[in-house]
Amino acid sequence: MIKSSFLPAIDRGLGLVRLLCMVVASAALAVLIVSFGWLVFGRYVLNVTPTWVEQLALLLICYIAFLGAAIGVRDDTHIGVTLFRDLLPVPARKVAIIIVDISLAVFGAVMVVAGITLMRFGWDTMLPMLDIPETFRTLAITSCGGLVMLFAGLRAASRCLSFKDWAPEIEFKDI
């Protein structure tokens, strides 16, 4: 990486944001498990099915999935086909990796814009059984888009600034 002090500081800050995303997604998963335990207990022991669990599960799954996707972009483990990229010479491979990062950042920006539109549209619609605005569900899309834009955009900028110093790793070297 480039020998500047601000890039490691930015990387540490993004690592903290990633940790916060992981904590929120993990807490949502724990709440999901407990609520389904309550659903089973209510349905089969008390013979009274709690109807709000399904809607809460749908809401929590949105946050788990979208925050997990943002973490995957931060960790550079998002889905991708690297066969052709890895066959390129190193300078072209570097350019291809930066193009992918920029494309991810643009996709994140589109998610933010679309998510804000959905949030505005859903503010007056309430989620059944939970009595909260639909906006809370679409906030997951918007926040994921912002995080993807932040993670991929800053990684692309960092790679551009340190183009001569970093060497991309070839995945699956043994194949």
UniProtKB/TrEMBL annotation:
Looking at the keywords, is Transport present?
Answer: yes
Pfam (any one): DctQ
For this UniProt entry, what is the primary localization, expressed as one broad class?
Answer: membrane
Membrane-spanning parts: 20-41, 56-74, 95-116, 136-154
Task: List the subcellular locations.
Answer: Cell inner membrane
Q: Is the Cell inner membrane keyword given for this protein?
A: yes
| Key words, A-Z | Cell inner membrane, Cell membrane, Membrane, Plasmid, Transmembrane, Transmembrane helix, Transport
Which function does this protein serve?
A: Part of the tripartite ATP-independent periplasmic (TRAP) transport system.
Please report the name of this protein according to its UniProt entry: TRAP transporter small permease protein
